[in-house]
TrEMBL record:
Descriptive protein name: RNase H type-1 domain-containing protein
Domain Reverse transcriptase zinc-binding, residue spans: 39-95
Organism this protein belongs to: Dendrobium catenatum
InterPro entries: RNase_H-like, RNase_H-like_dom_plant, RNaseH-like_sf, RNaseH_domain, RNaseH_sf, RVT-Znf
Residue stretches making up the RNase H type-1 domain: 205-328
Entries under Pfam families matching the protein: RVT_3, zf-RVT
GO molecular function, one term: nucleic acid binding
Transmembrane segments: none
Amino acid sequence: MKDVPELARLNRGKSVTALAYEAKIGEGNYNIGWLRLLRLHPRERFFWWRMMRDAIPTNEWLARRNLADTDQCPWGCGMEENRAHCTIHCMKLKQVTACLAEWGFYMPEPNSFEDMICSLKGLARDNPSLGRIFCYTVYQTWRARNALKHGRSFGTPKVIAATVLSQIPKSFCMPQMEQWCINQPIGLPTNHLWCTPPPNWLKVNFDAALTSSNRAGLGLVVRDDMGRLVVASGRFIEHWDPIQAELKAALAFAELIDDWMYDREGLIVEGDSSEAVKWLQEIYQPASGLHRMVDGPDLSFLSKFRQVIFQHIPRLSNRPADFCAKHALLGDFIWLDVTSSLIPLTFVELVTEESDRA
Ligand SMILES: [Zn+2]
């Protein structure tokens, strides 16, 4: 009947429950702390947490518990629907990732669930934006699958892929394409080509050209989801810093905005200077505080768009913008209509070539 001390908490801060869990399950099996690096929305995070714990009611999962008559994938893939199927092999998922690839977002192509986890872990560390897009893609495909199973309507792969991009938290949109490609050379196109944006989106390509006499040409090309030219512009300024000039080139878009552009689903802003793209992304993140700098670059005009994704692309995919930047050294211009005789033929050819390929 004496008072005895009771263990409530170890000095390392672990609760008794956590200690008991660790003793029973083992820490190794529960090591998914890296998932936090992806900063998913709670809904998507919970989904992925369940995925890791094999707690997603796939048909195989249900059949194992005698809760379903079939373990096959409801999309008609002719395969058992388990978590590896939902995250890697499913035909529907592949159709969605193919749409994303058409727009320039290349997803990992692992062979097994363990492989996929390994890729995702790598992405969480090196390229969280692309990891995030992958997580959202699997989640949105799973939602569509539930809609199919319960007789509700669901979107085409293109609609699902566009939903993925529109759902990504606005301030975290900057997949680093090149970095991903270095890690995963297999299964990717050998040369990175310019891609059209998703339906009803706009794509802005920017570039700057500097001369040794501190003159800079700023080039901008805005195109729609069919690869058609909306507007191209060039501006001539005095400048000596390449990154600042690149930033100015991107910001020059503010002067080209028409009201109808805000009604579009989103905007992809692409440049071949990784530093400039990184800067834009950092300034754009409200948490950075950089956007509040009085004399800093002003990106507030972008906040009116529904979604903005910054993307770093190889120089070869940015040729029309590069052309405009160089052409701007001769003087300012704005081109609206590719059929106009005022536009140099080389530029028209570059744009047509890219839209044909895309
Ligand atoms: Zn399937």
